[in-house]
Amino acid sequence: MADDKAIVVSGVTKSYGDVVALRGVNLEIVYGQCVALLGPNGAGKTVTTEILEGYRKRDGGDVVVLGTDPNHGDRRWKSRLGIVLQDARDLADLTVRESVKHFSSYYPDGRSSDDVISAVGLVEKADAKAGQLSGGQRRRLDVALGIVGRPDVLFLDEPTTGFDPEARRQFWELIDALKGEGTTILLTTHYLDEAEHLADRVAVINRGRVLAMESPEALGNRQKSQAVVQWQEDGAQKSPSTATPTAFVGELAQRLGPEIPELAILRPTLEDVYLRLIADDGGDPGSADITGVGSHD
Amino acid sequence: MTDLTTPTTEPHPTLRMPTTLALGWRRTRIELRQFFRDKESAFFTFALPMFLMIIFGSVFNTEIAPGVTFSQYFVAGMIASGVVYTGFQNLAITIPQERDDGTLKRLQGTPMPKASYFIGKIGLVVVAYVAQVILLGIIGVVFFKLELPTEASKWLTFAWVSILGLLCCTLLGLAFSSVPKSGRGAPAIVSPVVLVLQFTSGVFFVYSQLPTWMQHLASLFPLKWLVQGMQSVFLPESFASQTTGTDSWQLGQVALVLSVWTIGGLVVALLTFRWQSRGR
What does R_g of chain A's alpha carbons equal in angstroms? Predict the structure, then answer.
């Protein structure tokens, strides 16, 4: 095993009765990288994440997280993980500050509660009980409890559900800061702009397999594929595709003058590439639980 | 970015992990804070026994034996019930709720040792019990002429019956916490168990007046023996025959039955305790 890998997943399988949730998942994450796991509901994102976190046992394959098999992770190993799960409703009767302080005490080098609360933007709600927080604020508390132990590896399972755009921006800054400290991050999300902004690499997972793993720019040959040039001419919109958009626009400028009306050069977005990958795999990206494993998967 | 974190598979070698005991103490404090803020659990474990005591004690304030009123009899039974409320009922209801709302899953993903969680639960049970006994004792002494024992030996009995009973009921609560399928349904499953045992074990009725088959049934379960132990502390020696049919309180048997249930509870809790909902 190479020493620069924080997480190595090879050939992991998992079934629940007759339902196959994972059919050989492979994944490698280098120390300090942020990887986003993208995929439709039921693709196996949460099952994969929870196997890495030590919550679920795999049926086959190998997993190493921080040099340890999660099935045999001890306290010290756990003290190096930060976990943000989906839909938690606990701690309702405690204030934000009480919870953060309490969880900080579990770790050998826990962060100060004030630092964490201000990092997630909950200063004004520090003395409010978790049961009284809005959905987005509640989620920020979950993130706070995930980072309070100064984790080397941070797992974020749909962390920004319910965030308003400003809160999401703020969250992105927080993750950038954690990356700056060298934290390895595995993120599952339904927001492609989030993956594009945060992830060094994205892994597209569908029906229990990883279809592709690339940088957001390179996924599905995004930057090398044909570009669409779009402009207005004679009252109509033209939009042919071309492999050489620069030359194409040069010719266009000679023909139509220095300012081409409503010119745009369009590359496939991450969303386009993602949807194509899922469609090519025979999946419907909007489909419900294919595997039937857990509604919160 | 300077050298903030050197990638390594070695854990922070210089930093000490917090001890199990220290975290157990922290768990105890956070459990108590949550317990007293949660109106539902505070009601079930605290207010309800006190209401019951005030109502039953006032309505049936008659002599059931020379020198023993029903209210005095009822105080002993309610203190015994307090062991069951704070140990068994409290845990058997709150743990399924914690399993549902993600408390246990979150804790499982932290470096907190499981033993610290259990220490916290035991701490909660002990504090809640002591508080309940003090409240019930005050009500008993002030309103119902309960006479607190003066002999040290009786207090010794009180101490060991309480400790053994709490241990037994805590373990049974942990064991029973796997029975309710959801946190929402837990009170509806757990409370009737406690209520039926209270009726059959001589808490609400005088034990000697119950049908024989009911007495035999109740003798199989711990509450009857807890009640008997507490009666030996708070009621006169002469009353023993009413409950045991003999001249003695049969404290040896009390210890034996509670111990058997404690061991049974421990075994079942170890075998069945789950941190997550089924189907993982």
Answer: 22
